Amino acid sequence: MPNETHHIRLNKYIAQCGISSRRGADELVFNGQVSVNGTLADSPGIKVDPQRDSVTVRGKKIALPGMGTTMTVLLHKPIETVSTVKDPQGRQTVLDLLPKEIQKLRPFPVGRLDYFSEGLLLLTTDGDLCYRLTHPKYHLPKVYQVTVRGTIPASAAKQMRQGMTLPEGDTLAPAKVELKKPVAGTQQMEITLIQGINRQIRRMCDEFGLTILHLRRIKQGPIHLANLKRGMWRELTSGELKTLKKAVKLD
User: Taking the complete model, does pTM exceed 0.85, yes or no?
Assistant: First the structure.
């Protein structure tokens, strides 16, 4: 399962579905009236995944409000926003940028985009799609625009294209690197990654002493950020969703 999968306590899930209070949910479990995936639940504290697990109370399947609807949205994540549903430090999350009615559907970020990076981020309520998009077997190419201070040595671009090993021991697959013309003391490159090591671009640039001024993800598989403004979102079109599912063999 992807790391983004959201598990909650069974009694909390039952309460959120509007069946009873948490204490009432405890009693339902202890009275043998709750099953998870066809097996009688033996504790109200077991964890369930609302997207994947089938929970029944008194023989009737329950679901969160809106769980019958699947939605996948494209968000232009701004910098200083965390790519999680909740943040212990109280910082703005990507979920905060969505309307309340969509937040209630509990969409989950597909992967991460670091705090000081911006750009394309998908969020979905479709558990199967989220799993495929975050599984190494189905990794789709991700394209980034990277602006650095000064100029980028040809030797650095060559090494990125050939693949490299970071001082921490992580081995990086070859990346596609396209250098743009230097402008006003800066230079931009477009990097396409398939692998997806944590903070990979920043760590590669650190290795060559390059200072990143701006990092934006503009494409993931067949989905483009295009002209969507920072902090704005839109639902994927049916055509985009069909193409995306086909790219991860869900068609």
Answer: no
Would 8-61 and 74-138+228-247 be classified into the same CATH topology?
A: no
Selected catalytic residue, list 49, 53, 87, 114: 114
Q: Are 129 and 248 in contact (CB under 8 A)?
A: yes
Q: What is the DSSP string of 192-224?
A: EESS--TTHHHHHHHHTTPPEEEEEEEEETTEE
Annotated active-site residue 114? The verdict is yes
44-60 pLDDT, tens digit each? 999 998 878 889 999 88
pLDDT in tens, 118-155: 999 999 888 788 888 988 888 899 999 999 999 999 99
* Architecture per CATH, 142-220: 2-Layer Sandwich (3.30)
| Residue entry with tokens 């200083």 | 80
Domain 8-61: give its CATH code: 3.10.290.10
